[in-house]
Amino acid sequence: MNIHSESTDRLFRAILSLESVDECYAFFEDICTITEIRDMTQRLDTAFLIDKGISYQKISEQIGVSTATISRVSRCLNYGAGGYRAVIDRMKEDEA
After folding, report:
1. Domain at 34-95, CATH from 3.10.129.10, 1.10.1270.10, 3.30.1490.20, 2.130.10.10
2. What is the pLDDT of residues 51-73, one digit of tens each?
3. What is the domain partition of the chain in residue ranges?
């Protein structure tokens, strides 16, 4: 499935226009269900823990995600489009 479209571009431009964490909360609470936000949050947390070398078992216990989800995030982190890697690296730079 190809997600590239004018509508998807509009969505991403809308996200990029948000200027604060509070605006992100407002937008995502309007556009997503609580479950969708929680799922995305868990996936990003999983990516950060994988990057730190934490075991699948500990990630599953800490975040409450399945090993299948951890495996999928790991594949995306290591062989995907580079989105997780870009975010993790930028956030590490911001912390330094």
Report:
1. 1.10.1270.10
2. 999 999 999 999 999 999 999 99
3. 1-31, 34-95
